[in-house]
Known about the structure:
The chain has 146 residues and is mostly beta strands. The protein has one helix at residues 25-35; strands spanning 2-9, 12-20, 41-58, 63-69, 73-85, 88-98, 104-124, 130-133, 140-143.
Amino acid sequence: MTASLLHEHDGLRTFAVVLSEGDEAVAVLTTFAAQQRLGASQVTAIGAFSHAVVAYFDWKTKQYRPISIDEQMEVLSFVGDVTIDKGTPKLHAHVVLGDKTAAARGGHLMQGFVRPTLEVLLTESPRHLRRRLDPESGLALIDPTK
């Protein structure tokens, strides 16, 4: 992974982060967010994965159902945020992945192993975002009032 600070103004920063083959995207970006003390950031990316695990949130069971994708996939869309959850940065991202037939699959990104690259832009928000447990869903949702 390589990273560069592209812009900084009034304490807000924009980074370019380029992940390398074999990097696991969620772990690398979460570690980067902690190192940079990011409390609220928007994340977008493009690239490719050799293997990914996405998930679907099952409303009835209130649990994520993981779906393993064991083939080379283009990252067509990667959109998410970094927030503070229990005092530490948390990456929450959704992806759309395209296979060799141009079929798309996607969901909540749990793991993504990069091959050959993932080009990421992280843009810091003016205020840290915090999560709170939503009793109805059982999920830690952004609380914009905190």
